[in-house]
TrEMBL record:
Claim: Calcium is one of the keywords in the record: no
Single GO cellular component term: extracellular region
Family affiliation: Belongs to the YkuD family.
Active-site positions on this chain: 190 (proton donor/acceptor), 206 (nucleophile)
Pathway named in the protein's UniProt entry: Cell wall biogenesis; peptidoglycan biosynthesis
Any Gene Ontology biological process: regulation of cell shape
Source organism (scientific name): Geobacter sp. (strain M21)
Molecular function terms, GO-annotated: glycosyltransferase activity; peptidoglycan binding; peptidoglycan L,D-transpeptidase activity
CDD domains: LysM (cd00118), YkuD_like (cd16913)
Domain L,D-TPase catalytic: 93-230
Keywords: Cell shape, Cell wall biogenesis/degradation, Glycosyltransferase, Hydrolase, Peptidoglycan synthesis, Transferase
Protein name (record): ErfK/YbiS/YcfS/YnhG family protein
Superkingdom to which the source organism belongs: Bacteria
PANTHER family documented for this protein: L,D-TRANSPEPTIDASE, L,D-TRANSPEPTIDASE ERFK_SRFK-RELATED
Amino acid sequence: MQRAPEQSLQPPVPMQNEIERNVFSVADGDDVIGTLAVVRLDNGDTLPDIARHFGLGINAISAANPGVDVWVPEPGKEIILPLSFILPDAPRKGIVINLATMRLFRFKEDSKGQVVSTYPVGVGTAERPTPTGKMRVERKTALPTWYVPASIAEDHKKKGDLLPAKVPPGPENPLGERALYLSKAGYLIHGTNKPASIGLKATNGCLRLYPENVMTLYEETPVNTPVLIVSQPYLVGERDGVVYLEAHAPLENSGAQELEKVTAKLRKLEKKYGRNLDWKKIGKVQAEARGVPVPIMVFGAGNAKDSVKTVNVERPLRIFGAPEVPELRLDAWYVLAANVGHEIEARRLAAIINHQGPPIPARVLPQGSNSYHVIAGPFDNVGVAKEAVRRLKLDLELNGILIDPVKKI
């Protein structure tokens, strides 16, 4: 199994049932929060489901586990949960969003000091990127209506998908159940009906959160809260006197400039501490870009500070938010999404369909040697089944075929 740099991981401590994933205390002088964890996958798990359960985006869990199949990972495989984060290099107040890490940080104070809540986000595409800069929460809305921008309506029209002028609250609304409108016109922090897109460059410029996360953020964020959006792929931080580096794949056309910035910062830290940093390790961390904080100071052989603490987390019996496929029914409509020659490919396609938003239930039905049907359904009526055919074509370029209910004799 490939993980974060092997020489940087301590053996996991004994199994524990839970691990903190969203709310952390920030000690004075520290920039690193959280703990890396290891979990063992079970049959039928997907990385998007594990990511959501543990408060991660698909970008983070994929980068930390290169080579692991996103949709059909091997049962029994241990994977890294990158639940340790270096805070962005920015004032710690209000909301700070790092586009490069696809992570939101909400800073606040309590009786014991500073606390940060952190959530994964989906961000804008290369064609419609999320803007950086200072903003504020201008207003908030529960159960928002989506007023479709003309540019988005035009894009869908070109695909043969005619959108209405507005979409009321409900499962078809891409804003989800809560929205925070930013002072920069047209940009929101909101929920989603496509949870598997969290941790992807998949929006039209807005920032989307898991439904459960946006509910919490909505409640804890008053109007006029400052919002700062940055893009920092290379993060440097300290914890307990140790310097860490966390590297992510930079966004378009920013890699060289960001490397220069972080190199200059690391040189200053060398002078500050009067000791060398491990530049060979630094180069490896930057090249691998696995999104895991790694200690980069030069230590003597066997020094525990040269490695990252990990904990073993027990896989829960139920993965929060994982799609559940209803049992087969003879009286229902179905859609033959595809006929696939390899079981793994069929299971992968079924998993992708299951994670569409809104959900489309799908399963694999073996048809004999080297033949597997990927079936979507059950659907209660032909109208819902035809809508599934339309969405499979629009979103996945699949030519679905309607399957009528079995007629009673």
